[in-house]
Write a structure and sequence with these properties.
It is built from 14 helices and no strands. It has about 300 residues and is mainly α. Helix 5 packs parallel to helix 7 and helix 8 packs across helix 10. The N and C termini lie far apart (about 60 Å).
Length: about 300
């Protein structure tokens, strides 16, 4: 991938950044997952990625951030969402371009402020906010959840579907390709994304929501949360706590009548990260006060 043009590397990284990675081969496997499991979404995903990247380029945003895919991944998700939920029309490409471009502006404003102490990562917040707005203006039918018999095969498929559903792909092969891509980037990321999907699957089965469990819809937010918090620390308890928080937030967001999208993931990461940083800051202040007392 070292000989790829800059724009190709940036686009591939945009797909891998959905899973918080900067790895072009991981992005290629994400693209392959779309192509194999639901090729009708590929055009929207690529259009969203290009719109986000070109917006950043035209406005002169930092090249290293563009190359890392930071201005593309929300556009990819918006392109996937709109292509998945809305029927084809002349308006659809315009919606994708406009929303992906606007997400790029939001990302830039956030990145300018993330250098502040204890700043939070943006994650997929622009995708969630713009997704709620667009789906509110253009209501989409509820997803059809197929019921299957619970056995070893369907459970294994559901585990990988939970990874694929991050990109709205209801296919176990899509999830498997993404996990392979994560292995190429960092094996710990692959392990944690599977653990998160497994936790969501188990919880849905415990709640006797078999349709949600076997379709992977119960696992994709926990998969992302476990992955995100595992990248911030090597302490095992932090991703595990974040999984629990995500599971608790999910019914609360559903009760508001809003599509889940990746909102439980974003809110859980913000809450857990804020709590950890607040405790760390208090710990530092306490130690500083103790040293002052000793010196006196």
């Amino acid at each position: 991938m070292n000989h790829c043009p800059d724009w190709a590397t940036a686009l591939c990284n945009g797909f891998s950044q959905i899973f918080l990675q900067r790895h072009p081969l991981c992005g290629v496997l994400c693209l392959l997952a779309i192509l194999i499991s639901n090729p009708t979404l590929l055009g929207g995903a690529l259009l969203g990625a290009v719109a986000g990247l070109l917006t950043a380029q035209r406005r002169g945003y930092e090249k290293s951030q563009r190359q890392a895919g930071l201005y593309s991944y929300n556009g990819v998700l918006l392109g996937l969402l709109l292509s998945h939920q809305l029927a084809w029309s002349a308006l659809l490409p315009l919606l994708i371009i406009a929303s992906a471009g606007f997400s790029s502006l939001l990302v830039h404003q956030w990145l300018k402020r993330i250098t502040q102490p204890y700043g939070l990562m943006l994650y997929t917040a622009p995708f969630v906010g713009l997704g709620w707005l667009l789906l509110g203006l253009h209501p989409a039918p509820e997803p059809v959840i197929e019921l299957h018999t619970v056995n070893a095969l369907t459970l294994a498929q559901a585990l990988f579907k939970g990874v694929g559903q991050v990109m709205l792909l209801n296919h176990s092969l899509a999830g498997l390709l993404i996990v392979i891509g994560l292995c190429l980037s960092h094996w710990r990321s692959a392990v944690w994304v599977v653990i998160g999907s497994l936790a969501g699957l188990a919880w849905s089965l415990y709640q006797q929501d078999v349709g949600t469990a076997l379709s992977g819809l119960g696992g994709y937010n926990t998969a992302l949360t476990a992955l995100a918090l595992s990248l911030q620390t090597r302490r095992l308890w932090l991703p595990l706590i974040s999984i629990v928080v995500t599971l608790l937030l999910t019914p609360a967001i559903s009760a508001l009548g809003l599509p889940l999208l990746t909102a439980p993931f974003v809110l859980s990461c913000w809450l857990v990260s804020s709590g950890v940083r607040l405790l760390s800051r208090k710990s530092v202040e306490t130690k500083a006060q103790s040293r002052l007392r000793i010196e006196r």
